[in-house]
Amino acid sequence: MLKHSTKLIFAFILLIVAFTMIVASTYAWLNISTNPAADGIKVAVAGGNTILVAPDITSNEYGEVCHFPGEFSERLDFESNVNYDYLKNLSGLTPVSTADGIHWFYPVYNGLTGHTDTGRIGGYAEDTDMLHANLTESSEVSAAEAHYAFLDFWAVAPAAEYTLRVSTVPGNSNTYVLSVPKPVEAENGGFELDSGNAVTEACLRVGFLTNNTVLGTPSMLSYTQSERYSDRYRSLRGEYENISTSGEGQFKFTIFEPNADLHPTDELLNGAYITTEPIVSQDGSVADIRDRVTVQRHSSWNRTLHQSFAAVGQGIDSIDGALNLFKNDFEGRLSGYAESGSFVSSTRGLYDAADMTGGTVASDVLQKAASGGSAEDISIVKLEKNVPQRIRMFVWLEGQDADCVNSAADAGISINIEFAGGN
């Protein structure tokens, strides 16, 4: 089960990715919005002195689209990079399902694809060419049918090999997925922040697709002739243009499932864990993903955020004034108010427990499960020393999530992701 979000941070031993997006006004499998809306995505990537990151640059100098890294640094702001301008204009996300980051499915209702107010799912259509990815209002394909987002970036380990994992320091604002609170009128006058949209938090997923395919001569030549070339990097890895011909077995997909114990649609299950089985074929067959999902307990905004806004909001007399206050004084500092949940140390152990109880791990059992800063048995990729690795990151609403069953108002999501690297 994955949750929604919009702002990411990758830090610790390697990088920080921060971005914000809006999900569609409704996102249940059975009730998809015909008019999704979004404010776009703002993304920044940063890292420490162990891992460096770079934007993905493309060129067509040698008769094909070549990919190579821009300048490596400890931080990268996607919003100010022209290669990622598309992130600012994306439509709202609507549900899809994937187990591998290659095959993406969305429902067919009563013989029709896309939106319906009533009716049963008659099967699933596959988005074979990523036609439903990174859609805007001007796209020929409707985001109301299905919509997910992706971006590419590069990571390199200059000093030694490192195995990358999503990680956090529980209680700190390292890794979290939370809906962005909105100003609302307070009972005693002025304005306060609402509690956000928990359903959105419960259904969003973040995935990382990698492979170790060495990019061909054209990409390497383009890199050597670029202004940002460094002669310490003699090879580039990560090819995603010819997945069908390069062999799916060469790809590794890792799913980050935040707020996994949050179930706003069923309070009796709140605190429990329910396994998610993504769609893998048009007939509705599903997959076991225990070998690729990293599970995090729920995160939250701390009381200081609400108290601080309410204290200032008492003197605001209009919603426009409250919105401006939030945007100018709070939105850019949200990460400092977050308390991130811990990770379940063993995903396989969690799924083994779920196997004995029909796919659900009770809250008391989940509380006793070993936890820490990352899943010890799940990793994203191994970075070789001085070999830049291109990574494709996806953000989507998982239609198979147990909480992806109701409509929801427009929801902005804040996602912070920390990557930890170990030998």
Brief write-up:
The protein is α+β, with helices and mostly antiparallel strands.
Provide the descriptors you would attach to this structure in a database record.
423 residues; alpha+beta; seven-stranded mixed sheet; 7 helices; 27 strands; 13% helix
How are the secondary structure elements laid out?
Blueprint (H helix, E strand, L loop, with lengths): L14 E9 L3 E2 L2 E2 L11 E4 L4 E8 L6 E4 L5 E3 L27 E5 L2 E2 L7 E6 L22 E8 L5 E6 L8 E4 L3 E3 L5 E3 L4 H6 E8 L5 H8 L18 H4 L4 E7 L15 E2 L18 E3 L4 E2 L1 H11 L5 H11 L8 E2 L3 E2 L2 H9 L4 E2 L1 H6 L2 E2 L8 E3 L5 E9 L13 E12 L1
Parallel strand pairs: 17-19
Antiparallel strand pairs: 1-4, 1-27, 2-3, 4-7, 5-6, 5-11, 8-9, 8-10, 11-26, 12-25, 12-27, 13-27, 14-15, 16-17, 16-26, 18-23, 20-21, 22-24
Regions with pLDDT < 50 over 5+ consecutive residues? 1-18, 30-46
Sheet with the most strands, sense and barrel status: 7 strands, antiparallel
Oligomer: single chain
Q: What gyration radius follows from the Cα positions, in whole Å?
A: 21 Å
Number of helices: 7
Q: Strand percentage, roughly?
A: 25-35%
Q: What would the average pLDDT be, to the nearest integer?
A: 82
> Count the strands?
27
What is the CA–CA distance across the termini? 29 Å
Fraction of helical residues: 10-25%
What structural class should be given to the helix and strand makeup?
alpha+beta
How would the global form be characterised?
Answer: globular
Describe the protein:
The chain has seven helices and 27 strands. It is of the alpha+beta class. It starts with 14 loop residues before the first strand and ends with a strand. The longest helix is centred in the last third of the chain and has 11 residues. The radius of gyration is 21 Å and the shape is globular.
